[in-house]
Amino acid sequence: MSTYLSNDDRFQPINLFEYEKLAKEHLSQMTLDYYSSGAWDEITLQDNRAAFERVKLQPRILVDVSDRNLTTSILGQPLQLPLLIAPMAFQCLAHPDGEVATALAAASAGVGMVLSTMATKSIEEVATASDKFLDSLRWFQLYIHKDRELTRALVEKAHKAGYKALCLTVDAPVLGQRERDRRNEFALPLDLHLANLASISGLDIPYEKGESGLFTYFAQQLNPAVTWHDLEWLQSLSPLPLVIKGILRPDDAVRAVEYGAKAIIVSNHGGRQLDGAIASLDALAQIVAAVDGKVEVLLDGGIRRGTDILKALALGAKAVLIGRPILWGLAVAGQAGVSHVISLLQDELNVAMALSGCAKLQDIDPSLLTLPRL
Questions:
Q1: What confidence tens digit (pLDDT) does each residue in 315-345 have?
Q2: What are phi and psi of 222, to 5 degrees?
Q3: What is the C-alpha separation between 184 and 37, in angstroms, rounded?
């Protein structure tokens, strides 16, 4: 177990909520709002968390749990626990080492990392950092730009750098209205840039008076006309397996399988896109049933405790992704903070499994849960 020790011995975070509280002391208001906000009234943002609280556990007793095994695999790659770090933009806003620190923490803990198209460290920098560890699971998250040659170049760079999958985000044909960002006129500091996009095509986040610069970027650069048929073109660019992120409907999940997806991430973009959309956890079981084991299903949105991971796995997820808590750890203590956040979740999942009568991940099933009545 890793331990983060701050300069202030009076307060040591012992859970992810305390990391969030402490991170507020390390971030500018603009950055804090960018990381933490959701779309419009933030109903979906709040419901992602509330969905886990609605689901209750019914633990088994008198099971030998003296030896627990948290290991699994995703797309054939081993993980020390069923956890990946979700793609998140602009991590250098939290710490100068940004995505490189996150990658090192993930690889050293044996969990996966998905690097964002909008990263502030390059594809190559992150690859070099995590390649120090054998079998590191590293995916590249992709937005399809209007400039198809730019998209092609990103895919080729990711493939060449050893990324193991392309993770296509499909829930952002336009950017959700995040009013805190609009009020703050969100923009990157002058010393931060889109590490890959700026180097390939000179693109960067513009300053827009009265608006979020990221909203303007999406409107100008991303292609809102992408359809299912574009998945065939995308898969022709490299041999990397395709993961579809942002599915909330069973029929879309089935169609993703038909178009060649190897994994699906049930996600509402952390409540940052369509406000009022269903919580990710509430959408999970139907999607798992619809794909019927043809692909692996993952989930993100609202994970804050080891018991949350347990509940997601019981509903059929193979693994989960976490986002904002990683940024809180990064803001507080860089790589050490991210490592500690991962370690806290690992320890909590380990205890939750023992108390639920599960010695291995395969023992986790729907019988452990009592679902809310609709």
A1: 999 999 999 999 999 999 999 999 999 999 9
A2: -85, 150
A3: 12
